[in-house]
Amino acid sequence: MSEQTKEILDKMVAKVTSRKLLVWLTATGLALTGNLASEDWVAVALVYIGSEALVDIASTWRHGQ
Hints:
By secondary structure, the chain is mostly helical. Helices cover 83% and strands 0% of the residues.
């Protein structure tokens, strides 16, 4: 796949879904197929959502609304 095609697909995915949703869907898919334990699914979701929240808070604090 060419770099231009990858960029276009990446932009489309970014516009359609959020990263948090993609992480949740990936972890859920892995958990449903038995490749990820339920405890690990919770850990993945909490770490990602928590890190995104910290980034949002820091960005708002530094740059305002």
